[in-house]
Design goal:
This protein is α/β, with parallel strands linked by helices and about 425 residues long. It has helices at about 1-10, 20-25, 40-60, 70-80, 90-95, 105-120, 140-150, 160-170, 175-185, 190-205, 215-235, 240-260, 270-275, 290-300, 340-345, 390-395, and strands at about 10, 30-35, 60-65, 130-135, 265-270, 305-320, 325-330, 350-355, 365-370, 385-390, 395-405. The protein folds into two domains: about 1-25 and about 35-55 and about 265-415, EreA-like (biosynthetic domain) (EreA/ChaN-like  fold), CATH 3.40.1660.10; about 140-240, no CATH class. This is Erythromycin esterase-like protein.
Length: about 425
């Protein structure tokens, strides 16, 4: 493995050194950019520079991220000029107030947002570049947006929205309360959520305007229906709730792509565990799927290019348990025998690797591949932070930063768990 890495991996010092990676993407319409943690500065800054080049040089249409739809809509409105002209980017990022806030309310993302806004002002494209959230967690916020908009326009679909809202209301915006009630007591809002989704989908033409209200309503309705299913399932099956979440992200992605048209080209930012094809990991044995697998299956592997990210050591932003204060934590040197360990041994430097027909077989051995979540215990990471992976099949490219630094979060006054 080390000999193969020395043969095929190339050092990089700046975004210009990644020209061969940009070239290898070719005519792919879906470029998935991963990360091995949600709290590493370099993963955000490198993805941002790659994203700029893909937009400028290859005409990519929008960015879709592992974030909540309503909060990401604040960024989308800002970069497209839908927000008040005096609104500051930091005010926009205050809408990311659900824990873990640092995933998008951070210093690193500000530069990309301002660049996107400037690009959209200057572009001659008929459709401006967008920024959208694909995740499933924003049940209550999405319901709020649906009810608020339908009330504003006095829509006949308001009755279905109010019925759904009334069903969820007794749980006081508490996901765990709904999960227990629906999962164990069979007191769920499935019927109301699905009826709302059906109603919105049938009548979304009513909401067409120059601020994407039809798309906004459709995806918020998807979130409502799929979040209900996610929370109802999570108390009984982690694996199936994972599948519901990733299938939702692909459904949301497809809705956005359809909105942009058949020539839409998409950049996706998510954790490696979502973008790296699940069929090349032990997730397959558990019956789990993910975004990378589904996008490849739906669009053909020639139209998809997946880039994984990793590090040998450094620091990271994470928490010791869900909902508690973030910390800057040390990332210990990668476990011997892991992918990150081999890359470090091949050369203690920043490197990138392109997998192709000539070399994939040389990277077909199953090795541990580090994955750090928002909850992290570095001292115990050898027990569960390495995903057995066939790297040559999991990705089309890999970017390795030998020593990384923690993300720089913005300080928000109000945080929801």
């Amino acid at each position: 493995m080390i000999e193969s890495l020395r043969k095929y991996a190339n050092p990089f010092h700046s975004i210009d050194d990644l020209d061969p990676l940009i070239e290898a993407i070719g005519d792919a319409k879906y470029v998935l950019l991963g990360e091995s943690s949600h709290g590493t500065s370099e993963f955000y800054t490198i993805r941002a520079e790659l994203t700029k080049r893909l937009i400028q040089e290859k005409g990519f249409s929008f960015i879709a991220v592992e974030g909540d739809w309503p909060a990401c809509q604040s960024i989308n409105r800002y970069i497209k000029g839908f927000s008040p002209s005096n609104k500051d980017v930091r005010e926009v990022l205050e809408d990311f107030n659900r824990w873990p806030t640092w995933m998008w309310a951070n210093q690193e993302i500000i530069g990309l947002i301002e660049w996107l806004k400037e690009f959209n002002i200057k572009t001659n494209r008929s459709e401006k570049v967008g920024f959208y959230g694909l995740d499933v967690y924003s049940l209550w916020e999405s319901l709020d947006e649906i009810v608020g908009f339908l009330t504003k326009i006095n829509s006949p679909e308001l009755e279905a929205a109010k019925k759904a809202f009334a069903c969820f209301e007794p749980h006081n915006r508490n996901n765990e309360s709904y999960a227990v009630s629906a999962g164990y007591l069979s007191e769920d809002c499935m019927k109301e959520a699905l009826h709302l989704l059906s109603t919105i989908q049938k009548n979304k033409w009513r909401f067409d305007d120059d601020q994407e209200s039809s798309l906004n309503m459709e995806v918020n309705a998807l979130v409502t229906a799929h979040a209900e299913e996610y929370y109802r399932t999570m108390v009984k099956s982690d694996d199936e709730s994972w599948n519901i979440r990733d299938r939702h992200m692909v459904d949301a992605l497809n809705s956005i792509s359809k909105f942009y048209g058949k020539d839409a080209k998409v950049i996706i930012w998510e954790h490696n565990t979502h973008v790296g094809d699940a069929r090349a990991t032990d997730m397959k044995n558990e019956g789990m799927v993910n975004v990378g697998q589904l996008v490849r299956e739906q669009n053909g592997e020639d139209m998809v290019f997946i880039v994984g990210f990793g590090t040998y050591t450094g620091t990271v932003i994470a928490s010791t348990e869900w909902g508690v204060n973030l910390e800057v934590m040390d990332v210990p040197p990668a476990q011997p025998g892991s992918w990150e360990y081999f890359m470090h041994q091949a050369g203690a430097m920043n490197q990138y690797l392109i997998f192709n027909d000539q070399n994939r077989k040389e990277f077909s051995s199953t090795v541990g591949h580090r994955a750090i979540g928002v909850v992290y215990h570095p001292e115990y990471e050898h027990f569960g932070n390495y995903v057995p992976s066939n790297m040559g099949k999991r990705y089309d490219g890999f970017i390795f930063v030998d020593c990384t630094n923690a993300l720089h979060p913005l300080v928000l006054e109000h945080v929801n768990i």
